[in-house]
Amino acid sequence: MERRADVSILEMTAVELGRKIKSREVSVVQATKAALEQIKALEPAVHAYVTVDEEGALKKAEEIQKKIDAGELTGPLAGVPVAIKDNMCTEGMLTTCSSKILYNFVPAYTAEAVRNLEKAGAVILGKTNMDEFAMGSTTETSAFGVTRNPWNPDHVPGGSSGGSCAAVAANECFYALGSDTGGSIRQPSSFCGVTGIKPTYGTVSRYGLIAYGSSLDQIGPIAKDVTDCAAVLETIASYDKKDSTSIPREDCDFTSALVDDVKGMKIGIPRDYFGEGLDKEVKDAILAAAKVLEEKGAIVEEFDLSLVEYAIPAYYVIASAEASSNLSRFDGVKYGLRAKEYEGLHDMYKKSRSEGFGPEVKRRIMLGAFVLSSGYYDAYYLKALRTKALIKKAFDKAFETYDLILGPASPSTAPRLGESLSDPLKMYLGDIYTISVNLAGLPGMTVPCGLDSRGLPIGMQLIGDCFQEKKIIRAGYAFERSRKYQGPAIAADPKAAAAQAQRGALCGNAREWEAAAAAADKRPADVGAGKEVRS
Amino acid sequence: MANKISDETIEYVGILAKLDLSDEEKEEAKKDMGRMLDYIDMLNELDTSGVEPMSHVFAANNVFRDDVVTNGDDRENILKNAPEQKDGAFKVPRTVE
Questions:
Q1: Share of chain A above pLDDT 90, in %
Q2: Total structural domains in chain B?
Q3: Is the CB of residue A441 less than 8 Å away from at least one CB of chain B?
């Protein structure tokens, strides 16, 4: 007999649930079980997770309840179950980056951001699907199958943190962590109708985040509302000596900015964001959202940001260059996949990498190796870094006048599955509104602001100057007071989810791939099986 | 297409990237990279003379610390991930005859 998940618990935000746990109205085990039941019911339709740790989560839930009862854990997130993007190391729990090359990797340590959550009493439900090594905008480049958008299973959830955003939207967790190198938190948040923040570079430690583009990568929260995101960001932000780019900050009390007041706040809307390529329905929804803030007392003006279109080529040069260097560590020696047949060490490297990496990862590694190679380094790599300096300057100038910048998170709502991968360049162009924020190290947030005529979510992006998260949190909070959180139908109706699951052939996970690979005898039998969760 | 990627270039990139590409993948890569570089060439419209390349947004200074070991010996845990191991070390194909 299938047990129905407790919908009343699942509909709570993370902070609401934390409060109920504190007042003993809901137990940690009860909340964890509700999430796990929801995962069981909805995963066949959504496939947001690559690994679910049911046993570990329930065990942890009991431990945390005891600590709460003993008064040792008192924070707002104590006992609240969370999902973690699969590019953050979790000790003893499979961490694959949704890549075959890490199909069996079980880290010996935990990422600092995840450690901070654990210290605050988080229950980790599992690891979420993503584009392989975070390279992609749809979660379709995952080696372990696509994730479907909970609002419509024929559409992508966005990417690369598509699994985390879909899990939040489908109530398969109460909040999640994602990472953002060129929009990977903000764009899927927009496609899935949830809220996500990419903090100022250096705010959250990158220790234990498997690197893609180190100068751009930041970890951030994904949740149902701005309050949750502020509470989670406050918890994960920390100065960390283990990350050489970590920045000591005294102003990480982000929840203090949850104030419904934007009077006198100066908001700039870049004219260059509203030109060709922007979907009409998205445009209308964003401008309507700006109007809401204006009615609440903000001063909203249009301005010219400039250089917008140059961010994409600069980003793909810089991110690919860093990726080609970062991903050289995957060579079949210390962890992950080693090819079975090879002749000598060098051939083993090449064969292991060629078998382990998917097409998009190979494409970026090659482009990166090329732009860094002698003869092209100045023309491409240094040129991109000079462009980055100009883009940063353009933002600096804008923030002399404005408290924050408002625009879309993506030119369109979620595309249909399979539509984007046929043309990589077209997929890259979809990142136009998010990418420059990473190049300039700025904080950015996506807040849901409506649905298009097909019923797909639209997200507004708020961009702040470096270290000005509080301004975007305040504006986002004030805006969302005007509209109630709305989730997709299947989140509250597992029956609909079952019907959706029937519609399409679904999708594997890391364990299934492992089993298939073992069956095909691609590698020695002693690796893989039984390694998912190490106690 | 303005950028024509030669067989030699793809061969060279394959060596740099340590990737073993099939003939089909090579053809695909030539096409993809050519298109990407055409697009990236858009950056040449920008006058960047006199602009310093910006590798980090915030001034990145070296962070010094005392040379003290703070983490314990985690050899056993780390070796659990090794595709092959021998005598407490990672095993690789013979490299020196």
A1: 87
A2: 1
A3: yes
Domain boundaries, chain A: 13-309+388-503
Q: Is domain A13-309+388-503 classified as CATH 3.40.250.10?
A: no
Confirm whether B69 is domain-assigned: no
Cβ separation A386–B84 shorter than 8 A: no
B43–A335: do the CB atoms touch at under 8 Å?
no
Q: Do B36 and A367 touch (CB under 8 A)?
A: yes
Query: Which residue of the set A160, A161, A352, A436 is catalytic?
Result: A160
What mean pLDDT do residues A430-435 have? 95
A525 touches chain B (CB under 8 A): no
pTM for this prediction = 0.94
Q: What is the pLDDT of residues A205-241, one digit of tens each?
A: 999 999 999 999 999 999 999 999 999 999 999 999 9
Tell the burial category of B45 from Cβ atoms under 10 Å away from its Cβ (0-12, 13-18, 19+): exposed
Range of the domain at B26: 7-45
Tell me the Cα Rg of chain A.
22
Instruction: Count the alpha carbons within 13 Å of B10 in the hemisphere toward its beta carbon.
Output: 22
Judge whether A412 counts as a catalytic residue: no
Is B15 part of a structural domain of the chain? yes
- Which residue is catalytic, options A33, A85, A198, A471? A85
Contacts of residue B28 in chain A, CB cutoff 8 Å? 359
The CATH number covering residue B35 comes to 1.10.20
Q: Give the C-alpha distances (Å, rounded to integers) separating B80 from A209, A514, B85.
A: 20, 17, 9
Residue A433: exposure state from Cβ atoms within 10 A (0-12, 13-18, ≥19) = buried
Least confident of A142-146, A286-290, A508-512: A508-512
Considering Cα of A494, then A498, then A499, then A505, what sign does the dihedral take? Answer: positive
Let me know if residue B2 belongs to a domain. no
Chain B contact for A522 (CB, 8 A cutoff) = no
Peptide bond into A160 cis (omega under 30): yes
Q: Is residue B56 part of a domain?
A: no
